[in-house]
Amino acid sequence: MARAQSKSLINIIGNLGWPILWGGAASITFYELLQGPLKNDLAQRYFLGHPVAIATTVMFFIAMAALILRGLNLLGQFTVLDRAELPAKETSAISQDSLSCATELLSSASHWSARVQRSYLGKRITTLLETIVSNRGTRHLNDELKYQSEKDADAQYEGYSLVRIIIWATPMLGFLGTVMGITQALGDLATQQLGNDLNAAMQGLFAGLYVAFDTTALALTLSIMLMFIQFMSDQFETQLLGAVDVKTEDALSGLLAMESEGTGASVDMAQSLRSVITELTQFQQACWSDAISGLQQQWQTWAAEQGSTMGVALERSMSQSLAEHSRVGQQQWESWMESLNRSADLLHGNQDSMRRQMEMMQQIVETTGDVVSLEKALNDNLQHLADTRQFEDVVVSLSAAIQLLSTRLGAPAVQSKALDLSTETGNTKGKAA
């Protein structure tokens, strides 16, 4: 039980720990290079523009590390196929006892190097020999051989689990960055900002949309690269498993011949085993091709649906933003027109006041002209009286009339008054002059 748990832990570390470790180291190195020799505006925009872009890049490097480690393992196993010291066909058929032959081959396999024992070929041969020894014969050896081949195919499929998960999750991260970017852009697009500074508002909207579409483009590009690399690695491993099937058949051909126990059918079965394995390999390749084609079609359909949904959402958001902007602009325009109308009314009132003041000034000027004319006429009359001396005669006549009237009424005569009047007349003449 402890040994099984130890092997499980080792498998977990090999399948997850090393890719995460090497992928993290590669990510750190890559971002250090972005700050140094690889510093570029385009690279900074796509790989450092948003936390989602950083997470997508890190996951890409983890998947690449897993594929590279698996590729190195496959290259080593191809080397094992060429260098493994397998028993010859005639050596395997020396003993007529299948149990002793299997025991002898198992003892020979125990001297193989650890690298050979951990390979597909070493595990396959060792497992088959242990099955023969435990069953104490070669009964159902062909079925066991097919079962081990299918088991290795399942192990091949499970070996790419981490890569498949990352290939699936990378576009999801890209669309998550798109949603976050659009949300941030629309959240920063405040109504007050639309009314006060439209240019700044549109710049903020475009910056958010750049982030949204950049994360999606980066995620889709990286996921497509991972899909092609994973497909090539899978085909490479499929060829390796086919070669392991052929090598296993060659190594255990003597035991396969013993399975018929003298009936002669096993010889034909051993000869036809190669074609069966070849057909199985071709069938497996066809299944993988169909599965990958279906996955690609599903991915294209899903991407088209997501793109259409995102376009509709973006169009709706832009329509709402433009409508809001139009409403705010209309309100601003109405406010401006009201202010202009009030200013025009005030200007018209000022014009009326100035017109009335101008009329009053004109009246004052006309009145002043009349006073000047009257004064001039009075001066002219006084001058005329002074020149003709009629004024003094009038005063003397008036004085005489007053004295005559006084005499008739019995009042004393007032000559002195005449003299005073003469004096006053002279003063008046002087004033008129």
Q: How would you portray this structure in words?
A:
The chain has 433 residues and is mainly α. It has 2 domains: 9-320, no CATH class; 367-432, no CATH class. It is 89% helix and 0% strand. It is built from 15 helices and no strands. The protein has helices at residues 2-34, 41-48, 51-83, 89-92, 98-109, 114-118, 120-135, 141-159, 161-188, 191-196, 198-251, 253-258, 265-388, 390-409, 415-432. Helix 7 packs across helix 11.
Question: Averaged pLDDT, please?
Answer: 76
Tally of distinct domains: 2
Tell me the Rg in angstroms. 59 Å
| SS elements, strand count | 0
How helical, in percent, are the residues? over 70%
Name the quaternary structure.
single chain
Total helices: the number is 15
What is the rounded distance between the termini? 151 Å
The H/E string reads HHHHHHHHHHHHHHH
Report the principal-axis shape: rod-shaped
Largest sheet: none
- Structural class, by secondary structure, is mainly alpha
Query: In percent, how much strand structure appears in the residues?
Result: under 5%
Low-confidence stretches: 1-6, 89-96, 260-267, 413-433
In short:
This protein is mainly alpha-helical and 433 residues long. The protein has helices spanning 2-34, 41-48, 51-83, 89-92, 98-109, 114-118, 120-135, 141-159, 161-188, 191-196, 198-251, 253-258, 265-388, 390-409, 415-432.
SSE diagram, text form:
Elements: H1 2-34, H2 41-48, H3 51-83, H4 89-92, H5 98-109, H6 114-118, H7 120-135, H8 141-159, H9 161-188, H10 191-196, H11 198-251, H12 253-258, H13 265-388, H14 390-409, H15 415-432
